[in-house]
């Protein structure tokens, strides 16, 4: 039998003394299962489940971060499911690639305009070369 102790809070309600105590009780009741329909990961402890949901899993955690949980992108303000934010969204908007001309890291979304910028520079340089060659 599981015995749960309550403490009396100032306003008369019943609260747990500490969230870790709450975790201990949850652990006694069985595995902590992720509530996201398409995930349902069975975590060993309530603490592991909390890390799973909030995206701070450590390497010992069996399930890692929940791919179904809503998270905020680290690089912009977009919110969405982790599987979208950390994959398709990140790859589309936040990956960079090295420019072969100036060696700067360019965001993929800026690649076309960056390329056009160098193309204009090249045109100006070619004009200078032609003007110089006409004179000799
Ligand atoms: Zn999950
Ligand atoms: Zn983003
Ligand atoms: Zn460049």
Structural overview:
A two-stranded antiparallel ribbon has the order 1-2. Strands 3-4 form a two-stranded antiparallel sheet. Strands 5-6 form a two-stranded antiparallel ribbon. The chain starts with 6 loop residues before the first strand and ends with a helix. Helix content is 42%, strand content 15%. It has 4 helices and 8 strands, in the order E-E-H-E-E-H-E-E-H-E-E-H. It is an alpha+beta fold. The relative contact order is 0.07. Strand 5 and strand 6 form a beta hairpin. The protein has 2 domains: 63 residues, no CATH class; 40 residues. The site of one zinc ion (ZN) has 6 residues, from helix 4.
Low-confidence residue ranges? 1-9
Q: Strand order within the widest sheet?
A: 1-2
Number of strands: 8
Structural class, by secondary structure, is alpha+beta
- Tally of alpha and pi helices: 4
Ligand names: zinc ion
Helix/strand order, N-terminal first: EEHEEHEEHEEH
Strand percentage: 5-15%
Brief sketch in words of this structure:
With 136 residues, the chain is of the alpha+beta class. The chain is built from 4 helices and 8 strands.
């Amino acid at each position: 039998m599981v015995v749960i102790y309550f403490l009396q809070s100032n306003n008369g309600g019943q609260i747990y003394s500490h969230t870790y105590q709450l975790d201990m009780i949850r652990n006694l009741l069985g595995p902590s299962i992720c509530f996201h329909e398409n995930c349902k990961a069975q975590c060993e402890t309530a603490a592991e489940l909390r890390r799973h949901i909030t995206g701070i899993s450590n390497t010992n955690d069996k399930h890692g971060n929940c791919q179904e949980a809503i998270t905020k992108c680290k690089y912009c303000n977009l919110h969405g499911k982790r599987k979208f934010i950390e994959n398709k969204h990140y790859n589309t908007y936040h990956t960079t690639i090295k420019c072969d001309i100036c060696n700067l890291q360019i965001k993929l979304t800026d690649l076309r305009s960056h390329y056009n910028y160098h193309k204009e520079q090249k045109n100006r340089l070619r004009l200078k070369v032609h003007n110089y060659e006409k004179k000799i």
